[in-house]
Amino acid sequence: MAKKPLNIGMIGYGFMGRTHSNAYKSVNQFFDLEYEPVLKAACARNEENIQAFADNWGYESIETDWRALIARDDIDAVDICVPNNLHKEMSIAAAEAGKMILCEKPIAMDVAEGEEMCAAVEKAGVANTVWYNYRRVPAVTMVKNIVESGKLGRIFHYRANFLQDWTISADVPAGGAAVWRLDAKEAGSGVTGDLLAHCIDTAVWINGPITSVTAMTETFIKERLHQETGEKINITIDDACAFLARFANGSLAIFESTRYARGHKALYTLEINGENASLAWDLHDLHRLKYFDHADEGVVRGWRDIHVSDGDQPYMGNWWVPGLNIGYEHTFIHQVADFLKSLETGEPCGPTFRDALETQKVCDAILASAQNGQWVDTGCTEAI
Ligand code: SOE
Fold first, then answer.
1. What pLDDT is recorded for position 178?
2. Nearest residue CA, atom 1 of ligand 1?
3. C-alpha dihedral (151, 154, 156, 157), degrees to nearest 10
4. pLDDT in tens, 320-348
């Protein structure tokens, strides 16, 4: 049967523009869906660069003004892959134009912006999702399913890290393509919004709302040259952040993220401990789920190493044969598959803007706590 086209307007062409474009192109080869993304237009200010991107990925056309892209009648869904300070304006304009929105994380610079964005998409009634891709690593989805099944029993602890080392040198510039993440004016925050936000999204999805936090942050390098102007700018982002948290279900958590952990490139780890069992996972070995079940007979009791690749494990039935691996890029394909499915069923594709706002509330509370040295209530009550 002929597929229903979903015309994509992509804004941005960096790392995320590539992961998303790859996902749109691959999804129908592996998932049986009514809708099929069509790479209709790619948009960025630099004409030469966006044309090269469009040619490489097969976008039919380009725009150099995002407002013109959003105004086009032949665009159904807008994908926002630009620095965080632009998410709000573009999302609201897209919602007002009746477009569906797939927005990069974190949803916004802060909660106030996120609230406005949620109001806009909800008023317009447009489908929306935020790209917290790690939920859709099959082993991470399995953590969620196992916890939900009750196998772990009462949850006591949750811990997560996201460690990198790419900003240790003072020679790394800040601001503009690729390094906008180091400029608070464009990023809003440092590792809190960029990396811990992933850990928080996954944690809240698996273990329910985080109700309060106490945090510490540090900016190790306080001046850098701006990549585009060459001028020295003050760096105010959090280079590192560690925080303690309490969940609504009574469990305790510890989270850490930094871009100064020499040797770690993108090490996301999580662990959850319940009264009956524990689960642990890390991104560098993303198929492996570590599972300890206290109910196992004493002689064989120990950490099991589950290679999540069987057809009855999340998403894996859509890929190769049991035992064979998939990778980082597949998490984005899974999100597109779920988004397209949500258009068939009418069910939202999480995390929606509203779900991502819960993560933003935790991020804002972390930064407030790092400033005032106190425990801060997040105001979060919603499961996501
Ligand atoms: C930063 O280095 C970054 O690319 C994040 O922006 C992504 O969200 C994360 O998945 C990997 O690291």
1. 83
2. 194
3. 30
4. 999 999 999 999 999 999 999 999 999 99
Q: Look up tokens 């039935």; give the residue.
A: 317
Q: How confident is the model over 163-187, as a mean pLDDT?
A: 96
**Is it true that domain 134-377 has CATH number 3.40.5.10?**
no
Closest residue to atom 10 of ligand 1, CA basis: 195
* Residue 310 clears pLDDT 90, i.e. is over it: yes
Rounded (10°) angle between helices 138-149 and 197-207: 30
The per-residue pLDDT for 207 is 98
Q: C-alpha angle with apex 175: 186 to 19, nearest 5 degrees? A: 75
Centroid of ligand 1 to alpha carbon of 195 (angstroms): 6
* Ligand 1, atom 11, residue with closest C-alpha: 266
Cβ atoms of 144 and 206 within 8 Å: the answer is yes
266 Cα–ligand 1 center, Å: 8
Cβ–ligand 1 distance for 178 under 6 Å, the answer no
d(CA 77, CA 40): 10
Q: How remote is the CA of residue 15 from the centroid of ligand 1, in Å?
A: 9
Domain with residues 4-132, CATH architecture? 3-Layer(aba) Sandwich (3.40)
272-297 mean pLDDT? 98
C-beta of residue 248 within 8 angstroms of C-beta of residue 382: no
Domains in the chain: boundaries: 4-132, 134-377
Q: Quick one: pLDDT at residue 382?
A: 87
CB of 194 closer than 6 A to ligand 1?
yes
Mutate to test the pocket of ligand 1, among 131, 133, 195, 241 (most ligand atoms within 8 A of CB): 195
Distance CA 46, CA 19 (A): 20
pLDDT tens, residue by residue, 136-174: 999 999 999 999 999 999 999 999 999 999 999 999 999
